[in-house]
Automatic annotation (TrEMBL):
It comes from Puccinia sorghi. GO terms for molecular function: oxidoreductase activity, acting on the CH-OH group of donors, NAD or NADP as acceptor. This is Glucose 1-dehydrogenase. The keyword Cell membrane does not apply. Keywords: Oxidoreductase. The keyword Hydrolase does not apply.
Length: 114
């Protein structure tokens, strides 16, 4: 079982000092959206049957989409966006550590500009 999760909003203009409204919206979509997806994907993966004789194993794979700005800076100010995608990377690492023993792999892609 697998799940690819993408959740993204990039506000325009991209202020280096975002308003509370822009900050909250960006975090809600980019970070909390991925969290909800992971939560329900993991619940489903934990319900997978385990039967060693038939080769069935509990677990699965989750791929979250972050961004290169989570690791590097961008050419334009993107404070809220970069922070939200950094949170996706941290969440991905934590979920990977916590659920490895259940056979659930959690990774992230960090694409650049398209």
């Amino acid at each position: 079982m697998g799940s690819v999760l993408e959740s993204c909003i990039l506000t325009t203009p991209m202020p280096s000092k975002p308003t509370k409204k822009i900050w909250d919206l960006t975090m809600r979509v980019n970070c909390k959206g991925v969290w909800w997806g992971c939560k329900y994907a993991i619940q489903a993966m934990l319900k997978n049957p385990t039967d060693e004789l038939k080769g069935l194993k509990r677990g699965g794979s989750i791929i979250n989409t972050a961004s290169f700005v989570a690791k590097l800076s961008a050419a334009t100010p993107q404070l809220a966006y970069a922070a939200s995608k950094g949170a996706v990377l941290a969440m991905t690492r934590e979920l990977a550590m916590v659920h490895a023993r259940n056979g659930i792999r959690v990774n992230a892609l960090c694409p650049g500009p398209l």
